[in-house]
Design goal:
single chain, 341 residues, alpha/beta, 12-stranded mixed β-sheet, 10 helices, 15 strands, binds S-adenosylmethionine
Length: 341
């Protein structure tokens, strides 16, 4: 069944509602499966075979999908990966995305390794904001978690993003029990000196073959416990639709602290997103086992009506909520690196 598509204004913009009345206006677009880190909770030890050039959507194909999605009501597009900054031509692609009719807001999620090199150009290309994923402030742990070097470069990337006005700068940290959860307070203290949003995201059991399993989960209540030991947290009300973080601030803090209880207290009722993988599959939910094939449609027809139908079917297939913790929960074969987070 196709979702209801309503004309919402005279300039023929549309807004897509899913079967549960949620407005779907946010697209997460993965532009590559490749990454310059090998985070243990994201990718298996043996790595993941790279997709071939032919398997990956070209920038032209992605722009076509994005144009159709914006026409259907998407307002914000987050460019992700793999590591999006490793794909050649990403700056020009971001500029073209932002210049689509409807001028969607373009944001990026990155591990920050190349941000020092690209922050200025990203800003000039029209990128509005950036989320940087960082799980430790300790060099030896960075090496252990990511299986690569680079903490200093990520920290320089944060400063560069701030300096070039990619604001508000958000840092996403995934606390994992027995690995880095003892750094929650260190990360939170960054908000005392910097106007950054530091957000703690619950570890998610996305794929079955990763180094860290269930026993490493560090749920929101434990995150809040660690934060409260540092000082009094003031809850900031944030009524933005689609906002997934509960926001707090320490007295005198310049930045904000977010807690995203993706697993323990899901916010599926607020979900406003679709995800497209680098090989052109639409995922109705982060935890979907089923995907819809956009690539075959892109490569077999020039008529956008078919693309619209696939996107609309993905919206219609959005489940009410994820099934983590339920007896029927199934882990998929894709790792987060192949989904985009
Ligand atoms: N390379 C980019 C980056 O690091 O932001 C984009 C892709 S990365 C897969 C997107 C996000 O997924 C990162 O913030 C990473 O921490 C998060 N992630 C990966 N595996 C996860 C897991 N099992 N649970 C929670 N978050 C995870």
């Amino acid at each position: 069944m196709l979702p209801r598509i309503f004309a919402t204004s005279l300039n023929r913009k549309f807004s897509v509602l899913d079967s549960f009345g949620r407005t779907i206006d946010y697209l997460r677009l993965s532009i590559t499966d490749r990454c310059n880190l090998r985070c243990r909770y994201c990718m298996p030890d043996a790595g993941v075979p790279d997709l071939s050039h032919h398997d990956i959507l070209s920038y032209e194909e992605m722009l076509r999908v994005a144009r159709v999605a914006v026409d259907m009501g998407v307002r914000k597009i987050r460019v992700t990966g793999g590591e999006p900054l490793v794909r050649k031509g990403v700056i020009d692609f971001i500029a073209r995305l932002g210049a689509l009719p409807g001028n969607p807001e373009i944001t990026l999620t990155t591990n920050g390794l190349l941000l020092g090199d690209y922050a200025r150009d990203l800003k000039a290309a029209g990128l509005s904001r950036v989320n940087v994923s960082l799980d430790t402030l300790r060099p030896e742990r960075f090496r252990a978690i990511t299986r690569r070097e680079g903490l200093e470069r990520v920290l320089a990337g944060l400063e560069a993003a701030q300096c070039h006005g990619l604001k508000p700068l958000k840092i996403n940290m995934v606390p994992i029990a027995g690995v880095n959860a003892d750094e929650v307070a260190d990360f939170a203290r960054l908000t005392l000196k910097h106007p950054w949003d530091v957000r703690f995201i619950e570890f998610m059991p996305v794929a079955r073959d990763l180094d860290y399993g269930e026993e490493h989960r560090f749920a929101a209540d434990r995150i809040l416990g660690a934060l409260a030991e540092q000082g009094k947290l003031e809850l900031i009300s944030d009524s933005r639709p689609g906002s997934v973080a509960r926001l707090y601030r320490y007295d005198g803090g310049l930045g904000r602290i977010g807690v995203i209880p993706a697993v323990s207290q899901h916010f599926c009722g607020e979900c406003n997103r679709l995800r497209i993988t680098a090989d052109g599959r639409v995922r109705p939910c982060l935890f979907s086992v089923e995907e819809l094939d956009l690539r075959i449609v892109l490569r077999s027809s020039d008529d956008d009506i078919h693309l619209k139908a696939v996107l609309a079917s993905a919206v219609a297939a959005k489940p009410e909520k994820h099934r983590i913790g339920e007896s029927d929960f199934q882990q998929g074969s894709r790792h987060m690196q192949g989904i985009g987070g």
